[in-house]
Amino acid sequence: MMTARLLLAPLLALATCCHGQCTTTIPADAVIVDDASPQFVSGSNLNYWVCQDASETILTGNNNHIWIEAGAYVSAGGDYNTIYYRGLVAFGLMGDFNTCYAENDGPVQNLGQSNAVIICGAGQLAYTYDSAPANGCGVVGVAEEAEAWIGMYPNPTSGELTIVTPSADAHQLRITDLHGREFMLRSLDRSPRSVVDVSALASGLYMAWVLTANGDVLRRPFVKD
Predict the structure, then answer these.
(1) What topology does CATH give the domain 147-224?
(2) Tens-place pLDDT, residues 155-170
């Protein structure tokens, strides 16, 4: 029996869930979100299929069903969505009253209120593609995705933020809000671990964008107390 962790801030409740909810079908009317999509996807009451090459994308709509392939670097900022996330890297769950199915709880950064994060178990979140749109998303291996991992702690923070990029040295940090407005741009220590003072930022939710020596841009949401 798998465990459903209902993250109802500030309390953590435990419940159980049947395995059938971790097998899901991508519908024929799913809207494809890929590397050519706009940074903010704001439609509501829709089905979205997020491809592995989607990057720097924030889904801000409400009442959607969202299937996210491993390898995608996206966040969800809307409310009352049902989300399926197969990834290993950080996924920012920033809205409220969402239900998120994931294989592991580590990557899901629950930064909203009254979100339910349901853990299916490693390899147990299955997508069925029989009715999926033609010319849709492919599949990415977990090894590719793991190479682009970024760590950030403490989160929330009131002062210093430690950034860890094991796969490559970090060269530059840019901090924005969810609307893309820039609040900080600075060089980092050109090492896999950097410490940044963010105490001057107002309290709120931000996105950190880190440029590595490989030319990759990694991102992760964080909360400033």
Answers:
(1) Immunoglobulin-like (2.60.40)
(2) 889 999 999 888 789 9
